[in-house]
Amino acid sequence: MSETIFAMLLVLLVVLAVVAIRAGDLLVAVIVLGAYGFVMSLVWAVVGAVDVAFTEAVVGAGASTVLFLAALLRTSRRRSPLPSRLRWVALASVIAVGTVLLSVTAALPLWGDPDAPPARHVSPRYLVATVAETATPNVVTSVLADYRSYDTLIETVVIFSAGLGAWLLLAGRDP
Amino acid sequence: MIERHDSLVVVTFVRVLMPLVQLFALYVLAYGHYGPGGGFQAGVILGASYILMLLALGRESFERRVNERACLAIAAAGVLLFLAAGIAGFAGGTLLDYARLPLPVSAVKARYYGILLIEIGVTAAVAATLIVLFCRLADTEHQPEP
Prior knowledge:
The structure holds two protein chains of two kinds.
Chain A: H1 2-22, H2 26-46, H3 50-74, H4 84-105, H5 117-120, H6 123-134, H7 139-147, H8 149-169
Chain B: H1 8-31, H2 39-65, H3 68-88, H4 107-138
Helix pairs in contact in B: 1-2, 2-4, 3-4
């Protein structure tokens, strides 16, 4: 049952991606991209990554959609076609990257495999020690904010830099 | 320029919805230790509530309540709070080791509160940055020089 739903969600993802790429009106493309983000968050929830699903729902379906809409306000809803010479370059690079990705897929560990390298390296240690060491039952939070807090610190700096950059580039009154 | 929405239904609905969305953001921040959520998600939800206000009530009434420069300062303060929490435990030897935070609790509880502290910093940084990003992008009055 759940596998049927999962398969349907994956098919819906591909359909939404194609619609977003093909849409002539960029407003339509942005809204469809928001729907894509929402379906993606459902996929994350089905595979058990609830924190990632939450982030995808608020950022992929919410924040990025509204930021794209604001960008459309400043530019145009019309899509300008790619020069035909570039089209062939784009097609060739998409086929090349796609072939590489598909050929590597066979070597990936199965989903949920307990013997997969990521599941055997440091993950078990965090799962066992998180309550005893940090009193935080949600391992995702303790890994993000404690064990791997360097990454989160730099991430926060990156987000702040994005805001600062937007402020400096698109400055309004009294710059 | 984003005008106030014509429909009384939309304006009233947003006025009722805003505090609820903000309350949910605080819940997500506080409950991140035990369930899905945390500083980043809470920050996006909190920022989104203000974007909703700007879209429904218009820029004029938005600017009466929210100052963009203050938002930028709050974002910087969030990053600095994170850094400060990291440096406070530095005396013992390791950066970002919350167990050495100068708090009157056990080392395990200090890490618990350290996580909460930096999550608050992340929430402030993300929410304020999102507001600044949207305000700048949606401000069609001031186009940059081509």
